[in-house]
Amino acid sequence: MLAETAALGGLFLAAFGAATILPFQSELVFVGLQLGGTQALWLLVLVASIGNTLGSVVNYVLGLGLERYRHRRWFPVTEAQLEKAQDWYARWGVWSLLLSWAPLGDGFTVVAGIMRTPIWLFVALVALAKTGRYIILAWLTALTLG
Question: Per-domain residue ranges for the chain?
Answer without folding.
Answer: 2-145
